[in-house]
Every structure is written in C-alpha cells, then in structure tokens.
Amino acid sequence: MRESIDHILFSEEQIQTRIREMAQQISTEYADKDPIFIGVFKGVVLFFADFVKRVSIHCEMDFLQISSYQGTQSKHMELKKALCSDITGRHVVILEDIFDTGHSLEYTYDYICRQAPASVKIVTLLDKPARRDPKVTLQADLVGFTVPNEFVVGYGMDYNEHFRNLPYIGVLKPEVYEG
Ligand code: 5GP
Ligand code: MG
User: Fold this and answer.
1) To test ligand 1's pocket by mutation, which of 100, 111, 177 has the most ligand atoms within 8 angstroms of CB?
2) Nearest CA to ligand 1 atom 12
3) Among 40-44, 67-71, 171-175, whose mean pLDDT is lowest?
4) Of the four, 13, 112, 164, 176, which is 20 to 30 A from 154 by CA?
5) pLDDT of res. 86
6) What confidence tens digit (pLDDT) does each residue in 67-117 have?
7) Quick one: CA torsion of 144, 150, 153, 155, rounded to 10 degrees?
8) pTM of the model
9) C-alpha 32 to ligand 1 mean position (Å)
C-alpha cells in the first residue's frame, strides 16, 4: 500500500500526539458533564477509537452513518444509520474524520440538534478550509490538523474503500486515480 502513497502528511506518531492533546482538552472541558461522543461512520473509526482511549472521564458513545448522492441540481444527504441513544438533554461531542465541503457535518449537526441536546460540540481530526462550501456557516470547535486542498487517505479515510487501515495520513499518487 505504501507504494500508492505519494507523501505522508501526518505520521502515526504525530497523529497520536495530537489526539492525546485533544482528548485531554475535552476531558477537562467535559469533566462532570457525562458527554456522549457521536462518530460519523465510516471514516471516523480509527480516530474515534484512539480518541476515546485517551479520554479520562466517564463518557458514552454512539454512531451514525450518512451518505450523499447527486441529485439533478445538487448533492443530497441521506441518513443510513440512526443513533441508538436518546440524546435529549445530553452534552454531545460530534467526532468527524475531515471537514471538507461541510455538507456532511451540517447535515449531522442539524440531525443532532433536532433531538434537543443540552449542547453540541464539533471535533474534527482534519479541516480542509479551501474546499468549504461558502453556504456552510458551521465551524469546528476543535481541529486536529488543517490540511491543504489535496485528497488524503489513511487513518480511516478511503479511496474506493481502500487505504482506511493505514496508520498514517497521506496523499495518493496521481496514477492511482488515473488507474
Ligand atoms: P464533506 O465534503 O461533506 O465535508 O465531507 C464528506 C466526507 O467525505 C468526509 O467525512 C470524508 O469521509 C469524505 N472526504 C472529504 N474529503 C476527503 C479526503 O480528502 N479524503 C478522503 N478519503 N475522504 C474525504
Ligand atoms: Mg466522515
């Protein structure tokens, strides 16, 4: 797999160091709040697992899955897997792999807010501000790394369902897309 990667953006060690910092920050902010961490499948799974291992306070976990499809005029989001928990009155922390155009996070945020949580925070491992849809006004509360406008893979993120299990984050070689 390494031969398909043009260059590594964040090594395993860099990712783990940053996640420890983020988890410590959230543990301090949410002490005594009994938060529920909500991950968005599938890209978040590696980040989610490593993050919650570093959280030092009591917490719960749940997951949802959404998918996007291209309509005649614009992209639409669809809920593929709903939450199992009742989050009414709860302090929710959304975990995402990457904040790109922002459509997924906006959809996720609205879906969660409709269930009347006490508060909602957005934590994303990566932020790619160059790709943000100007119509999206939502902002992340905590960002692991800001990335350039390149398609990244690894550490949960895929290209055609491949590369999710890489322990680092890298940029693919152009010939992989060109096939
Ligand atoms: P959005 O464009 O809605 O912000 O991002 C939607 C989803 O597309 C992300 O959660 C992520 O799973 C995927 N995505 C966005 N940018 C990238 C990228 O650079 N690489 C990979 N592998 N997936 C991405
Ligand atoms: Mg995602």
Assistant:
1) 100
2) 43
3) 67-71
4) 112
5) 98
6) 988 777 667 899 999 999 999 999 999 999 999 999 999 999 999 999 999
7) -10
8) 0.96
9) 33
Helices (H), the chain: 12-29, 45-54, 103-113, 174-178
**What are the tokens at 28?**
């301090």
Alpha-carbon distance of 80 to 108, in angstroms, equals 12
Q: Which pLDDT tens digit goes with each residue over 44-60?
A: 999 999 999 999 999 99
Are 136 and 35 contacting, i.e. CB atoms less than 8 angstroms apart? no
Nearest CA to ligand 1 atom 15: 100
Alpha carbon of 166 to ligand 1 centroid (Å)? 16
Determine the distance separating the centroid of ligand 2 and the alpha carbon of 96, expressed in angstroms. Answer: 5
Q: Whose CA is nearest to atom 16 of ligand 1?
A: 100
Active site (catalytic) residues = 100
CA-CA distance, 23 to 56, in Å (whole number)? Answer: 8
Least confident of 2-6, 16-20, 50-54, 94-98: 2-6
